[in-house]
Design brief:
single chain, 461 residues, alpha+beta, 2 domains, 4-stranded antiparallel β-sheet, two-stranded antiparallel ribbon, 17 helices, 8 strands, binds iron/sulfur cluster
Length: 461
């Protein structure tokens, strides 16, 4: 008899506690969804807005049910509430209780001649063309496929849009105007500057010029292309220099990226290559004015592999789609680098294993890629290290059909959401709570769709 009384007393206590937790928990979630709904509305995400307001109703009904009828269905409520509490505790188990994945340092160097931009510039019938395919015959058949399409920014491509294509072309051509200034002589009459002041000045100036993130790394072998593949650097062998690399990112506008793979994406890419190129060229010029060697690496004129430099400068990780995933904007950035012998502070690598783990669960870019160019497999050993590699030929063939640089993978990536309180909170949870990652993918699918449709063009485009 006594034990029955104790049991009932125990159920009553648990019931009261869990009722309070579930009532306040569901009320809190209803308010969170209300907040999310307005955030999505502002971001012009129609589906996500609808889903958020739907969840406001669901959580409001749940909290009301617990409040009004919690006492009548005591045992069911206790069971349900305990399940919710245990599940929440499971979701938010901190990452310190999980084994940390090992950081992998890339090895070997990339030959720029094998990149698609370089192969695209080869002109059939020329000596350079024949020499390349004699050296790399395995690329010939695949390259013939993209050459059969009309090509990037062509009027005959699927997503031709006169204004957007003309502006994109203008952007790419304007970046070329900087090519003659990426390198140059250092000033002979330079004044001495304080090292700490210089470091601080550069970081603040980059922010002021619109960089979302910036960092400095010691340049290593794998940062440098082995052989040049574009312009007058074709076939030039690069010798890695013992220098520092300043890497920074600039944001690609979310509204334009959301239209991918249609015309606004290529216009935005070209715009941000231009912005990043202007900033990097000016920064290199500035350092040379102070008597240091400095070379900017900008669109169409790289000696270094920018995502790898940025990764080692602490700006992010390389994700499934092979791009730099930044903590603030995921892959929705463009990168530029300045290599220099100026005495700057080197940043920590800042390894974040959560990105790889999240990518292994997400696969949204792979599902959304119109060319099926992104691997759905786990990382594979390629060139001696474990990594993901996209099928660059399939990707570029799609670009030369679409006329744009596609970017659908960037548009759908859950990390690409805007840099605001709501999305940053989700990124924080993804980073610190490994069990939250899979549900986060499911939630992203719920709000935005597994294969979100491209948005309509902004009216002015
Ligand atoms: S879409 Fe998903 S899998 Fe692809 S890069 Fe982004 S987080 Fe990783
Ligand atoms: S840019 Fe487009 S085609 Fe290329 S990998 Fe991304 S989604 Fe696929």
């Amino acid at each position: 008899m006594d034990s029955l009384i104790y049991f009932r007393f125990f159920v009553d206590v648990v019931h009261n506690i869990t009722n309070i937790i579930v009532f306040w928990g569901s009320s809190g979630l209803a308010f969170t969804m209300l907040f999310a709904g307005f955030v999505f509305l502002k971001e012009k995400e129609k589906r996500a807005t609808g889903m958020a307001f739907l969840l406001v109703d669901v959580f409001a009904v749940l909290s009301l049910t617990v409040y009004l009828w919690g006492d009548e269905f005591k045992y069911i409520c206790v069971l349900l509430s305990l399940s919710v509490i245990f599940f929440t505790a499971y979701l938010f188990t901190p990452s310190i209780f999980f084994k940390k994945a090992e950081d992998v340092t890339p090895s070997g160097r990339i030959d720029e001649r094998n990149t698609m931009f370089s192969r695209n510039e080869l002109i059939p019938g020329t000596e350079q063309f024949e020499r390349y395919y004699n050296e790399f015959p395995e690329h010939r058949a695949k390259d013939d496929i993209f050459r059969a399409n009309h090509g990037l920014l062509s009027k005959k491509t699927a997503f031709f849009s006169p204004l957007a294509f003309a502006m994109a072309d203008a952007g790419f051509e304007t970046v070329k105007a900087f090519h003659s200034m990426v390198n140059g002589n250092t000033a002979r009459d330079a004044v001495m500057v304080d090292e700490n002041k210089l470091d601080f000045f550069i970081r603040e100036w980059l922010k002021k010029r619109g960089a979302v993130s910036a960092g400095v790394t010691q340049m290593k072998d794998h940062h440098w292309y082995s052989t040049g593949g574009r312009g007058d650097r074709y076939n030039k062998k690069y010798i890695p220099k013992n220098e520092l690399g300043i890497a920074f990112t600039v944001e690609m506008n979310g509204e334009m990226v959301a239209c991918s793979p249609k015309a606004p994406i290529v216009m935005e890419s070209s715009q941000q290559y231009l912005n990043a190129g202007a900033i990097a060229t000016q920064l290199a010029f500035f350092l040379r004015n102070l008597g240091f060697e400095a070379r900017a690496h900008i669109d169409g004129n790289y000696e270094v592999v920018c995502p790898l430099v940025a990764r080692d400068a602490g700006l992010g990780e390389i994700g499934r789609m092979g791009l730099l995933m930044t903590p603030q904007l995921g892959p929705r950035v463009r990168i530029a680098v300045v290599t220099t012998n100026a005495p700057l502070k080197v940043d920590d690598r800042n390894y974040d294993p959560s990105v790889e783990d999240f990518c292994s669960k997400c696969l949204k870019c792979a599902d959304a890629c119109p060319a099926s160019a992104i691997s759905k497999k786990d990382k594979e050993v390629i060139g001696g290290i474990k990594r993901w590699q996209i099928d660059q030929e399939k990707c570029f063939t799609y670009w030369s059909y679409a006329g744009t640089d596609c970017g659908r993978c960037i548009g759908v990536c859950p990390y690409s959401h805007p840099n605001n309180l709501f999305h940053n909170s989700i990124r924080f949870l993804i980073r610190h709570f490994p069990n939250f990652r899979k549900p986060a993918v499911l939630l992203d699918d719920f709000f935005y769709g597994r294969r979100p449709k491209p948005h309509k063009f902004p009216k002015w485009v």
